[in-house]
Amino acid sequence: MAGGLLGALAIFLHSLQPSGCVGSECGSQSMRAASSVVTGVGAVAALLVLIGVVGLTLIARRSGQSPKLMNAGLAFAAVGFLVLLAAVIIQAAFFGGDFTGMPYFVVVGMVALIIGFVLIGIFILRSGVLPRWVGILLVVSSALLLGANEQTSAVLLAIPFQLAVAAAGFFMWERTGRLQRVAPVQH
User: Fold this and answer.
1) Which of 68, 71, 113, 115 has the smallest set of CB atoms within 10 Å of its CB?
2) 34 DSSP assignment
3) Where exactly are the structural domains of the chain?
4) Packing angle between helix 132-144 and helix 159-182, nearest 10 degrees?
């Protein structure tokens, strides 16, 4: 829940920065820079969202569904995350923050990550561990990420996904609290 809320906050704060370049504009215009607050909050949010999505996926696995969709989703998401991580490391270690190949890594990494999130969302929706509307919101908001661009106001298209993750976290937290209240005390 916290990861989704922090992610939405980081995206909103980032959208307040001046727009950056896209495509051929980058020869004459600079890219949108993330503030240190956005970078820090975004990094914490990304880690919490990643942990939350994996945890929710493992809970959904107990539903008895075939794990093929889950495994495919986790594989795509992992590849996407690793491609993005590799790009960040390459840019920092070898190019002083100005890696011209970064867009290629970002496109491949984000597409793989989004495919993974859509597949995971479908798996979670089918499992019934969340209210149906939250599962649908996870799937649809994952697909919306394809239109997000952190250099323009289109970055705001990533907020619905963050809110869907927050809603999923809330329902899992509420469900856990309800189960603990009902569970008999062991002596």
Assistant:
1) 68
2) P
3) 2-14+42-168
4) 150
Q: Which residue has the higher pLDDT, 143 or 58?
A: 143
CA–CA distance, 106 with 29 (Å, rounded to integer): 19
Of the pLDDT bands very low, low, confident and very high (cuts 50, 70, 90), residue 63 is confident
Long-range pairs for 138-143 at CB < 8 Å and ≥24 separation? 138/164, 138/165, 138/168, 142/114, 142/117, 142/118, 143/114, 143/118
Query: Distance (Å, rounded) from C-alpha 111 to C-alpha 99?
Result: 20
What are the distances in angstroms from CA 43 to CA 9, 49, 91, 93? Answer: 12, 10, 17, 19
Indicate the SS3 state at residue 148: coil
Q: Where are the beta strands (DSSP E) in the chain?
A: none
Joined tokens for residue 69: 């969709």
Q: How far is C-alpha 137 from the chain's CA centre?
A: 13
Q: From residue 25, how far is each of 20, 32, 151, 155, 165 by CA, in Å?
A: 9, 12, 11, 18, 34
